[in-house]
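Intended use. Records like the one below are meant for learning the mapping from a protein sequence to its folded structure. Do not use them to infer anything beyond what is encoded.
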Amino acid sequence: MSTLRDLALIILAVEGAIVTLVILLVLGAVNYGLFKSRWWHVLPRWSGRLYGYLRSGHHAVDRVCRAMVSPVVEAEATGARLTGWVRTLLGRE
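Structure written out for the chain above:
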């Protein structure tokens, strides 16, 4: 079961890495676009849209990673529960 736990931690780390890379990519693209176009007066409007896109992207990545991790967490909890019951029945506490 430790392999499943390690796999769940790796998937959670991947979620953080994906979100970080997407944020950096979008901020870099916005910065480059504003630099090239010199549209400094539209920054507040674009930042509001950017925040909405980042929020929806973060929620999508969060849902996908949660769907991937939740079966692993449930399997780990069930295994621990069964091990506890077996130890109790055998008197090895």
